[in-house]
Write a structure and sequence with these properties.
Blueprint: H1 7-14, E1 19-21, E2 24-33, E3 46-51, E4 67-70, E5 75-79, H2 86-91, H3 93-109, E6 111-121, E7 128-139, H4 145-158
Antiparallel strand pairs: 1-2, 2-6, 3-5, 4-5, 6-7
Helix pairs in contact: 1-4
Length: 169
């Protein structure tokens, strides 16, 4: 059995609340993802740490579109993604602002793991046990509600809930 969440239940789960569905109590948690790095994705471009050496010249292989960005404690050279045409990059201020903001958030806070877990009361002993779960790493540190609902829905499609908790012992 796989859970089916209503839009309202997805909203509650995305807000960190526990939701009852199919006799299972579902929760969503986020935690830091130390295994995923910015360099694992082409969509963010490339970065090179320069620390507190603001005089550092643009790194080899970085184009004229590269810029210095600061997280508050460290500085980086950032080269926007190669698949964004220069004409688009230079004419779309919202795109530049949004992508720069995402890269800075990831540099400052890292990626997240979003996990969905289901708990059910055991018929034989009465204890509440986790019976199923799924997780996804590499999630931006501050996903918007719509993206988080999509992730939760996808995680729900990956889990199987046993008929009874005893089967999960």
């Amino acid at each position: 059995m796989r859970p089916t969440f209503t839009p309202e239940q997805l909203d509650h789960l995305a807000a960190g609340e526990t939701v009852e569905a199919g006799g299972v109590a579902w929760t969503v948690n986020t935690s830091g993802d130390a295994d995923t790095q910015l360099a694992d994705f082409d969509c963010y471009g490339r970065v090179e740490w320069i620390g507190r050496r603001p005089e550092m010249q643009r790194p080899a292989g970085f184009s004229g579109r590269a810029e210095k960005i600061h997280t508050g404690r460290d500085a980086y050279w950032w080269e926007p993604p190669a698949d964004i045409a220069p004409a688009v990059w230079h004419s779309d201020a919202q795109l530049r602002r949004s992508l720069r903001h995402s890269v800075l958030d990831i540099l400052a806070h890292g990626f997240q793991i979003v996990s969905l877990s289901g708990r059910r009361r055991c018929e034989c002993c009465g204890s509440v046990r986790e019976v199923t779960g799924a997780a996804l790493g590499g999630v931006d540190p501050f996903p918007d509600a719509s993206y988080l609902r999509d992730i939760i829905q996808d995680l729900g499609s990956m889990v199987d809930v046993p008929e009874t908790v005893a089967a999960a012992h």
